[in-house]
Amino acid sequence: MGRSMARQERAVRTRQEVLRAAAEVFDRRGFAAATMSEILSVAGLTKGAVYFHFASKEELAHAVIAEQSTWAEQVDWSAPGFQAVIDVSVAYARALLDDPFIRATVRLVIEHGAFEAPDVEPWRVFIDMARQLLQRAEEAGDLLPGLDLDQAAAVVTASFTGIQLTSQVLAGRADLLERITAWWKLLLPGLVTPERLLTLDPGGSSRVAARTAARPAS
Amino acid sequence: MGRSMARQERAVRTRQEVLRAAAEVFDRRGFAAATMSEILSVAGLTKGAVYFHFASKEELAHAVIAEQSTWAEQVDWSAPGFQAVIDVSVAYARALLDDPFIRATVRLVIEHGAFEAPDVEPWRVFIDMARQLLQRAEEAGDLLPGLDLDQAAAVVTASFTGIQLTSQVLAGRADLLERITAWWKLLLPGLVTPERLLTLDPGGSSRVAARTAARPAS
């Protein structure tokens, strides 16, 4: 029993080490150019140890992407009404800056997911999260009357994707938080009531500003 | 002289054939997976004919991307004030649906440009175009006072990128024009005066709706 537990813990640890190495390599090289042998080498593990957990590069990519759901579950939704929508976007931007797992996910989802084998699941995670946050904002009386929440969730997540991609290309993400703030300033008047507009912080509330990414930087 | 002219015309034609074949292959496979031999095979040309014009896959990718500037120069800017900003975005969306050159460019710019060898030029072409169109809209009195035109141009082009990418992943671009319209509806109140808002068509004016892509579909 003790031996079996130890073996199980070791297996979980190894799986995490492989995933982290895969995230680093996918972030750096992208799916097409990443190789299992580079991932093995970064993880410092044998072929057998890795293939026990993941039969292929494809499986590894899916496992890295699945970690995004973990991030979404951990994020702080405590700001009131619409401020939580902004705060979650700022928290995700910070995670992009700090966390190779999130960066790898974004690269895999955009490159491989968009062009090679469209997998809508990771996009749905974010659209659903935005939809739920907008629903809460509506219940708080923050939204303009008659807003279509599905359309708004789709526009918010899609625009965020474009903002972060543009910041990556033009500035290596150095201006990501400024771009997010500028984007919210322009988009908010089409989403929230004029009264609520005056009280929202488009740069994220002090709550999120003071927090670091949910996953520690590596 | 006549012989030299004929040779020159043939060279121009061959170059265009190679570019079109490259656009098709880059659109289908992406930069990493595209091969010169597949491009040769699609073009139906010999290795010598292709390498005379383009020494490498990299050179071909840059030449395909350069065609985007051609598109930008041909587009109809004749709608009044802010309507031209919307109309150009709709015209580009239509070009994405109809034209493998534009699709290949977007794939190359996002995949290769964003992740492998950031090349800001193709992004700048669009940001500059948006900036000029916004300037015209400001001169027409359409914009909210105090708007930062550089920030607005950056947000508009980045958001468009995200909208079209999301439509591609979630719907194979089948809902692209609907998504563009929904996006403008939400973004316009942060950009234009309330009076002008009432007269703008967020789906594109009849001018652009009646036009097809600048480059004929192939």
TrEMBL record, chains A, B:
GO molecular function (one): transcription cis-regulatory region binding
UniProt protein name: TetR/AcrR family transcriptional regulator
Listed Gene3D superfamilies: Tetracycline Repressor, domain 2
Keyword ATP-binding tagged: no
Family matches, as PROSITE patterns: HTH_TETR_1, HTH_TETR_2
Superkingdom as given in the UniProt entry: Bacteria
Family annotation (InterPro entries): ArpA-like (IPR047923), CprB_TetR_C (IPR054126), DNA-bd_HTH_TetR-type_CS (IPR023772), Homeodomain-like_sf (IPR009057), HTH-type_TetR-like_transc_reg (IPR050109), HTH_TetR (IPR001647), Tet_transcr_reg_TetR-rel_C_sf (IPR036271)
A Pfam family that the UniProt record links to this protein: TetR_C_45
Domain HTH tetR-type stretches: 12-72
Record feature DNA-binding region, as residue ranges: 35-54
Alphabetical keyword list: DNA-binding, Transcription, Transcription regulation
